[in-house]
Amino acid sequence: MVTKSKSALKKQLDLYKNEGNTIGLVPTMGALHQGHISLINHAYSYCDKVVVSIFVNPTQFNNIADLEKYPRDLSNDTQFLKEHNPETIVFCPEVNEIYTDKVESESFDFGNLVRHMEGEFRAGHFDGVGSVLKRLFEIVKPHKAFFGEKDFQQLMVVKRLVELTQQDIDIIGCPTSRNEFGLAQSSRNFRLNKAQLKQAELIYKALTTAKVMFLEHSIPHIISTVEHMFKEDSNFDLEYFSIVKEKDLIPTTQKQSKEKYRAFIAASVAEVRLIDNMALNY
Ligand code: AMP
Predict the structure, then answer these.
(1) In what order do the strands lie in the sheet with 272-279?
(2) Which pLDDT tens digit goes with each residue over 93-120?
(3) Angle at the Cα of 135 (from 108 to 167), degrees rounded to 5?
(4) Which of 37, 147, 174 best tests ligand 1's pocket when mutated (most atoms within 8 Å of CB)?
(5) How far apart are CA 259 and CA 247, in angstroms?
(6) ∠ CA(96), CA(102), CA(105), 5° rounding?
(7) Residue 137: CA atoms inside 13 Å, Cβ hemisphere, count?
(8) Active-site amino acid positions
């Protein structure tokens, strides 16, 4: 089933729910790739029916050029899904189906989770993410929803969102899917040519360098090593490289025993902004 209509979707899902099926939701912005497929496969391992939403959410873009350049190709996406997961229910609404009054974010109290990294460099981004997901969750009312660790800060924010909005949905994190050279799959990679994709592997190299160094070196030393890697490469603009405690996503320069740490990075190659992250000590 492929539908733009929330009432048609709800009707179909009510039938499935009445038959006792569990429903999984995989929210996406389209330009589907293997990372999305890995989420869908994950969803099928937990749920009877899987809904994939395809919606480029205007309220989560703080930069209009970025929104306009975001790759969109619905017929390609539905073909891709047919090849990999033909049973998947595809919900691809127009903007006014989701934002019935105004195309505007509500604001949420995500606390420290949004103080740094994407929250700091993309003002309003997570309120936009929260606004669209709250609506998608209300429409689909899934038992479980699946999100990639590729956007780890988003995953933490979504867990908080369902607490704040008291929506009874299990939020499941799924591992980052990478190409053979470690580059995380991303819809934005479609905007890079072959040479630029090769250059983008520096992001993975930086994260693995941080991971290898983590046991024996101080956090400031790791950060300066990674920053140096980017200074040496003129193809790249490093926006941030941060090492944070996983539980609160606050950047830190001190290591404490028994804490989990993660490195986060945002960098642009050929004006395409890419993000990635990696666990450092587990
Ligand atoms: P997007 O379409 O980029 O908004 O992503 C939709 C969902 O797919 C989000 O939960 C992302 O975290 C997840 N995702 C995107 N890329 C990957 C990847 N390479 N591996 C795992 N999950 C991913």
Answers:
(1) 236-245, 261-269, 272-279
(2) 999 999 998 999 999 999 999 999 999 9
(3) 70
(4) 147
(5) 8
(6) 105
(7) 22
(8) 36
User: Which H, E and C letters describe 22-62, residue by residue?
Assistant: CEEEEEECCCCCHHHHHHHHHHHHHCCEEEEEECCCHHHCC
pTM value? Answer: 0.97
Is-contact 192 272, C-beta < 8 A? yes
C-beta 59 within 6 A of ligand 1 = no
| pLDDT tens, residue by residue, 61-76 | 988 998 999 999 999 9
Domains contained in the chain, CATH given: 2-174 (3.40.50.620), 187-277 (3.30.1300.10)
Does the beta carbon of 57 sit less than 6 angstroms from any atom of ligand 1?
no
Distance, CA of 200 to chain centre = 18
For the CA of 184, the nearest atom of ligand 1 = 19
Distance from the alpha carbon of residue 30 to the mean position of ligand 1, in angstroms = 10
For 1-45, the pLDDT digits (tens) are 999 999 999 999 999 999 999 999 999 999 999 999 999 999 999
Q: Which of 33, 37, 39, 188 maximizes ligand 1 atoms within 8 Å of its Cβ, making it the mutation to test the pocket?
A: 39
Euclidean distance between the first and final Cα of the chain, in Å?
A: 40
Task: Report CA 210 to chain centroid distance, whole Å.
Answer: 22
